[in-house]
Design goal:
27 strands; disordered N terminus; Immunoglobulin-like; 3 domains; alpha+beta
Length: 662
């Protein structure tokens, strides 16, 4: 009875809070709209013109912040992303959470940390952007009077930001926000340019029209998924969301052939030339996936005999690649004109090559999978390796910093540490850096990309933050030593590290912290059991808009012989797919160790690489405060209130740029 009463009381309290929040939102909206409503009333009473009520032009020149605040006021807390929003606006105090560095504006708008020249045309701005992996956003840019001719240029900036949203990325990180993706838009009203990406753009636009004069709004772009040349869409009931499917309509299966010329591949030819005519024949690979991945590139994947190599000829590059525990995939470029015949076969030492499977392909004009992927576009490497497109800039050296940028980075980091000390917090800032798979397995990057052997963003960033007084635990050298271990450190069909890779990272991190807090040293190896397990492929499948069961991967898993705080969370989708269910650990949370001893406290910023690491570290800290995943905003006052021993960043190399300007 007591529990039931408490439950009823809790429900009543929740309802009361919701009613209060609704009332506050209503009052705020009414307050913001009062001048406009008064103007409308005057127009209706004095200039009826035959009974047709007209909305007057703007009664007040609202700031961008006032417009954005009025829009946000009509949304209930449950309509907002759980990961939260960052509220940036012009004129904010440089030491406040609302200040945004000019370079970060460039990062938000163009993915590059640089000055956005179009912002010179603005009177002011308000950028209410997601803190974590979400697409809920209200951004308002007010163009200066006299600069109206620049409105189209300003609009293009917001349209570029909108175009970065990707269906494949949403399916993995924020599937419940796909309806927002369908209706997001950029509108212009008078001299305001506004990006609306909300759960209800209709009521958002109503507020804007009531405030700003109403009849001058214009839709400047279609929803991000309906542009010209996009693949057709089908509904996958099992996935619970729409998925795009691109089929290779012109693929033609040709009868298998056995007279394969291996002279091009001397090593394989030598190893098989001694086989007697009666030797066993390598089984023909089973092709499970074949599709155009780019206009002149074809993706092929399937299964083969364990240990077999896969040969593909007929394109502009010939391939002889390793399979992975009986699974393979390859991306084959072919001629930009005419038809090409791609021939695929398998060969294993001591056996004759398999019969061929052949495909006829021809150039396409509307395959946009790579572009649609944005930062997460597919880069299919050699030997059944997969990388993310946003690894390329660092790999090729396109993101190296200028000397003044390095100095500014060091200064920002020094300020973080000084601000902590000035408020009595002695926390050590530690960055646990997981290298890009493309960095560790550079030999498997497609040869159309050239590795930068000089300074990299990683080395520059590391030098600057160390010089400022922060600690960097860079796992690059460690992973280079373990890249050929029995167990994988990175997945092949997913963008994340394996549990074995996370275990290596855990041992390194806690060994460092254990120097000061011996009780927090890594658990003994007997507490973990490493083994291999077969899964359906990881987040790569959503980039190609296919089913997770189309391909498989054998990868390393770690069994815990103890129970961490909160239990061991299984992050894999349905327990049998490498696609990580980030929502299980991505929200802000606090854990406490279930052990006795002298353990440190920690405040954790993180990207999705922290997911597999989560259960490894929770019992190593007396209190672990996890900021919501992908939220890198510097929360000085909150950190000081927690007074942790460490501020820990767990990030992949490709997210360095995302923490540099926070």
């Amino acid at each position: 009875m007591v529990n039931k009463s408490r439950k009823i009381l809790s429900i009543k309290l929740v309802k009361s809070v919701k009613l209060i929040m609704s009332a506050i939102s209503f009052v705020l909206v009414c307050f913001m709209l009062l001048p406009v409503l008064s103007s409308c009333k005057e127009t209706a009473n004095g200039n009826n013109n035959g009974g047709n009520t007209e909305v007057s032009q703007t009664a007040k020149d609202y700031t961008s912040k006032e417009v954005a605040d009025a829009v946000m006021a009509v949304f209930q807390p449950e309509e907002l992303p759980a990961s939260g929003l960052s509220y940036f606006f012009s004129g904010a105090d440089e030491n406040s959470d609302n200040y945004v560095d000019p370079e970060k504006i460039g990062l938000l708008m163009t993915e590059k940390p640089s000055i956005v020249p179009e912002f010179d045309y603005l009177e002011d701005f308000a950028l209410y952007v997601p803190s974590g992996q979400s697409i809920f956003e209200v951004s308002v840019l007010r163009v200066k009077k006299g600069e109206e001719a620049k409105i189209d240029a300003v609009k293009a900036v917001l349209e570029k930001r909108m175009s970065r949203v990707d269906r494949g990325e949403l399916m993995n990180y924020a599937a419940d926000e796909i309806p927002i993706f369908e209706t997001m838009k950029v509108i212009t009203v008078n001299n305001y340019v506004i990006l609306l990406s909300t759960t209800d753009n209709v009521k958002a636009e109503k507020v804007i029209n009531d405030m700003l004069g109403g009849n001058n709004s214009s839709l400047s772009n279609t929803p991000a998924n309906t542009g010209a040349g996009k693949p057709t869409e089908t509904t996958d009931a099992n996935a619970g969301a729409e998925k795009k499917t691109v089929s290779m309509d012109e693929v033609v299966n040709i009868e298998p052939e056995t007279d394969i010329d291996f002279n091009l591949f001397n090593a394989v030819s030598a190893s098989t030339s001694g086989s007697a005519s009666g030797s066993a024949v390598t089984p023909q690979p089973i092709v499970k996936v074949h599709m155009y991945s780019q206009n002149t590139m074809c993706f092929i994947g399937g299964t083969c005999e364990i240990g077999a190599k896969i040969k593909v000829t007929g394109g502009t590059e010939d391939f002889l690649i390793d399979s992975d525990s009986g699974n393979f995939f390859v991306e084959v470029p072919f001629a930009a004109t005419g038809a090409s015949v791609l021939k695929l076969s398998a060969v294993i030492d001591g056996k004759q090559p398999s019969p061929e499977t052949a495909f006829i392909v021809k150039p396409q004009t509307d395959i946009t999978l790579f572009e649609d992927g944005g930062a997460y576009g597919n880069v299919v490497g050699y030997n059944t390796f997969y990388f993310c497109e946003d690894s390329l800039a660092s790999f090729e050296g396109d993101d190296v910093l200028k000397p003044n940028e390095i100095t500014a980075l060091q200064t920002r980091t020094e300020k973080k540490i000084k601000d902590l000390r000035d408020k009595g917090c002695n926390a050590e800032i530690i960055y646990l850096l997981v290298p890009n798979p493309m960095r560790v397995y550079a030999e498997n990057a497609p040869k159309r990309y050239t590795e930068n052997t000089g300074d990299t963003l990683r080395t520059q960033w590391e030098g600057a933050v160390k010089a400022a007084g922060a600690t960097v635990i860079d796992l690059t050298d460690l992973f280079m030593e373990h890249k050929h271990d029995e167990f994988k450190i990175f997945q092949r069909t997913d963008t994340h590290w394996t549990e074995y890779g996370a275990l290596l990272g855990y041992n390194t991190l806690m060994s460092y912290i254990g120097q000061k807090f011996p009780d927090a040293a890594p658990r003994p190896s007997s507490d973990f059991e490493i083994s291999n397990k077969e899964f359906y492929w990881g987040d790569m499948y959503s980039r190609f808009y296919m089913e997770p069961s189309d391909l498989k991967e054998v990868t390393a898993t770690v069994k815990f012989n103890f129970t961490p705080p909160g239990g061991r969370v299984d992050l894999y989708e349905n327990g049998n797919c490498l696609n990580l269910m980030h929502a299980k650990v991505s929200m802000a949370q606090t854990t406490h160790t279930n052990l006795t001893g002298n353990f440190p406290s920690v405040y954790i910023y993180r990207d999705s690489f922290a997911g597999p690491l989560h259960a490894f570290i929770t019992d190593r800290f007396s209190t672990a405060t996890f900021v919501s995943m992908w939220n890198y905003d510097w929360k000085l006052n909150d950190i000081v209130s927690k007074n942790p021993d460490y501020v820990l960043y767990i990030i992949n190399e490709r997210n360095i740029v995302n923490v540099m300007y926070n």
